[in-house]
Amino acid sequence: MWNRPRFDLKVRLTLRVAAISAACFAAISAYFLVTADSAAHARIDGIAAIVAKTLELQQGKVQWVASPRSDFPNLDPVSAHVMTPGLCLGFRSPSGDMLQRFCSGAPAPASPPPQAFAAFYRSLFDPGREAARPVIVRGTKLGETVVSVDPAVQTAEAWHEAGRLMIALAIALPLLCALVYAALARALRPTRMIGNGLERIAAGDLTTRLPPFDLAELSAIRDVFNHLAESLDTALAERSELTRKLIALQDEERRHLARELHDEFGQSLAAIRALAASARQTAAQDCPGLLGECDSIARTATGMMETLRGALFRLRPPDVDELGLVASLEGLVSGWNGRSRGQTRYDIRFDGAFESVPASVSANLYRIVQEALTNAAKHAGATSVSLHLTMAESEIALAIEDDGRPNEAAVKSGMGLLGMRERVAALRGRLSFETGPHGSALRVSIPLAAADRQALEHAA
């Protein structure tokens, strides 16, 4: 399954705020540039209209004077009033010839605009575009006035306006991001507490509860979390009680079956052996040819009795309450060493004092170890199996490791591991089964608080 990359929520929201803010600043800058370009063209249009009107008045004055001196067009009077740096005034005849032209110099800008901005601005706004107004006297067009601004000057002015906004953006945007990140970190601080609570719930601590939060959304999550934890705690308690009863019923059924096998099947096998011995004595006197069959019947009955003893031992283990957990497990391991005949070595080690472990917990631990050893013998083909039982301050830990290569699917699909899981769940514990190239490991952890609770429930 494809895993999508995960990002910190604060970083993601801060980046979104930064992107929106940058877009707003860009829109404002674009608005200022458009406004500045429109104002520049409106100014040169106004200047062109003033120059055209001035030239029309000049031509009218020439016609009124009796002995006129033909100096039309004369841009000197108007240029003194309207000229600005980079501005050009001109008069173009109807034929297209430029009869007169004045341009004011433009000082070199202190901070010239970058070439990228200049190219971008020229591609959008076409600085230096001319504004022309016709000069019409008595219905006759004498020419037109032409007004323009040096493109470099107009670009530098636009960069000066945009540069101030960019400086403001460069200062305000990081400050805004820092403030937004700090505010989000403070507002989302309870999410870390929620995450820790979920981890504790996943670890099996269903007593975890979340405190009230200031934010309404987080408070809603807190209410759902606490309700879920309470529901899970109740459901797990009911499941544990049901599992405990089922396990107790299973153990009672095993004891009943063991009694039935011992009383009925065991006595029948004993009777068969006695009859075989009696038949052998009779055959020795009357029919020696039947001695082999009598001995075969006796051997078969003896083998069946040995098998029955093993089955009875598994169905009805020694009384853990009387012998104690340590002695019972040592006896179990010794029995497996005897049956393996040296093919597999079983070792057990204890750390801690187990005298205070409740009888019900000891019985469950014994059953778990018994089933684990059975799985190791059936599926692992191991040459060494080690058991380590530890009593810590807060829990009882059991580790069973072997050097075999089990069929993990066969082990997990069998009833043995399921039964162990149910017993561990009834004790509010944790069970894990791992396999690797060098063997497998079964680990069980049972909290002492759950063990005490199990003892009280069993006593009740």
From TrEMBL:
Record has Transferase as a keyword: yes
InterPro entries membership: HAMP_dom, HATPase_C_sf, HATPase_dom, His_kinase_dom, Sensor_HK_TwoCompSys, Sig_transdc_His_kin_sub3_dim/P
Compartments where located: Membrane
Any one GO MF annotation of this record: phosphorelay sensor kinase activity
TM segment ranges: 13-34, 165-184
Predominant location category: membrane
Matching PROSITE patterns: HAMP, HIS_KIN
Catalytic activity of the protein: ATP + protein L-histidine = ADP + protein N-phospho-L-histidine
Domain HAMP span(s) in chain numbering: 185-237
Keyword presence, Membrane: yes
Alphabetically ordered keywords of this record: Kinase, Membrane, Phosphoprotein, Transferase, Transmembrane, Transmembrane helix, Two-component regulatory system
Documented EC number(s): 2.7.13.3
GO annotations of cellular component type: membrane
All copies of domain Histidine kinase, residue ranges: 365-450
Name of protein: histidine kinase
Species per Swiss-Prot/TrEMBL record: Bradyrhizobium forestalis
